Amino acid sequence: xxxxxxxxxxxxxxxxxxxxxxxxxxxxxxxxxxxxxxxxxxxxxxxxxxxxxxxxxxxxxxxxxxxxxxxxxxxxxxxxxxxxxxxxxxxxxxxxxxxxxxxxxxxxxxxxxxxxxxxxxxxxxxxxxxxxxxxxxxxx
Length: 140
Fold this sequence. Notes:
Mean pLDDT: 94
Distance between the termini: 26 Å
Number of domains: 1
Order of helices and strands: EEEEEHEEEEEHHEEH
CATH superfamily: RNA polymerase II/Efflux pump adaptor protein, barrel-sandwich hybrid domain
Radius of gyration: 14 Å
Number of helices: 4
CATH class: Mainly Beta
Shape: globular
Helix content: 10-25%
Strand content: 35-45%
Structural class: alpha+beta
Low-confidence stretches: none
């Protein structure tokens, strides 16, 4: 769905830091959403955590850098890193080009898939979150 110039698929789950999560069987695919990648500008580096890294919901586990921004990826769930998108090492701009496709960042193996229910999901909730953040960032 389009919200004020941002592409925000309403079938995904979103965290407060503007990373999306897509359930794919017993794995969660994670990446930066369109709002975050537009705000960041050209992404130049993504820290890829090692496979098997233990994750705790709400704790940082990776970094993303652009020419004007340094961001942190926080785990949406307790679990482990299953794999990282190795193509981002050679071309981190894939995030800017296709943040919901080729620009995916991490695959996570959650301890409890039900933890994603704490994330923002559904058209109305996603729209409310995004509009609030658009207003907040325009003021800053």
